[in-house]
Design goal:
CATH architecture of the largest domain: Orthogonal Bundle
CATH superfamily of the largest domain: Alpha-helical ferredoxin
Number of helices: 15
Bound molecules: iron/sulfur cluster
Strand content: under 5%
Oligomer: single chain
Order of helices and strands: HHHHHHHHHHHHHHH
Number of strands: 0
Structural class: mainly alpha
Largest sheet: none
Distance between the termini: 36 Å
Radius of gyration: 20 Å
Number of domains: 3
Shape: globular
CATH class of the largest domain: Mainly Alpha
């Protein structure tokens, strides 16, 4: 990508809405819940972007930093200049995906995992996670809970007033094929499909660089690497 990165950011509606003028006061960092846990400073991100320095912005796009934000938008409520660092970070993430720089950071590379385990699921089932389709071995942090819910899904969802795999309305109902087809059309015309393809394309390039086997399954070496890597440098010790 050869175009000036700041100029591209300036065309993004989230950036336009998110940045007026930052006075570097640090209020956003003081209130940010992510900054309590991660090596993370939204003030630094806003200040970097505001510098208009292409190299510094590029480094940001390649870094873990832009992936720590939880998008809670607490920063919006307190900024004395009416900036929204959370929106600026959304614009940066979008540009990191577009440019392919996301594969240069551990957290950025996890975009592939989210795309395959959540994004694609929306298209396949109409849910970001449908109980029948969860691979529980991929979520050891849940312990035996999800296995139990899967085994007893009908009773569990009926007790909660759901309509598990039923016709008509209600939580966990079956999403009709025509609704799924409509969802796919929305992804196609809104750029979602292209966005997904872009994540796959750049991830494949990175896998080749790392000499890790890559295919469209969650069993390939690159996916497992992305899913399980942790350099232990993300959080405040
Ligand atoms: S609170 Fe607003 S003005 Fe202060 S550092 Fe954060 S973005 Fe800049
Ligand atoms: S939106 Fe992001 S940067 Fe803003 S307070 Fe929440 S976690 Fe922090």
């Amino acid at each position: 990508m050869t175009e000036d990165l700041y100029s591209i950011l300036r065309k993004d509606v989230r950036f336009i809405e998110g940045l007026n003028a930052c006075i570097n006061c640090g209020t956003c960092t003081a209130i940010c819940p992510a900054a309590e846990f991660y090596n993370y400073d939204p003030r630094f991100i806003v200040n970097t972007v505001q510098s208009k320095d292409n190299n510094r912005i590029k480094e940001l796009l390649k870094s873990d930093t832009i992936w720590y934000c939880g998008e809670c938008l607490s920063c919006k409520t307190r900024c004395p200049r009416d900036n929204t660092p959370g929106y600026i970070i959304q614009a940066l993430r979008h540009l990191s995906h577009q440019s392919g720089y996301f594969v240069e950071s551990e957290k950025g590379r996890q975009s592939l995992a989210i795309k395959r385990t959540v994004g694609e699921e929306i298209l396949k089932s109409g849910y970001c996670m449908f109980v029948d389709r969860i691979t529980t071995e991929m979520h050891p942090e849940q312990g035996p809970v999800w296995d139990w819910v899967r085994k007893n899904a009908k009773e569990v969802y009926e007790r909660c007033g759901g309509n598990y795999k039923g016709e008509g309305v209600g939580a966990m109902r079956k999403i009709p094929d025509e609704a799924l087809a409509e969802l796919k059309s929305i992804f196609d015309v809104s750029g979602g499909t292209e966005f997904f393809e872009n994540i796959e394309e750049h991830s494949k390039r990175k896998a080749e660089e790392l000499k890790l086997q890559f295919d469209n399954t969650n069993d390939c070496e690159y996916f497992k690497h992305v899913y399980s890597s942790n350099n232990n440098k993300h959080t405040i010790k």
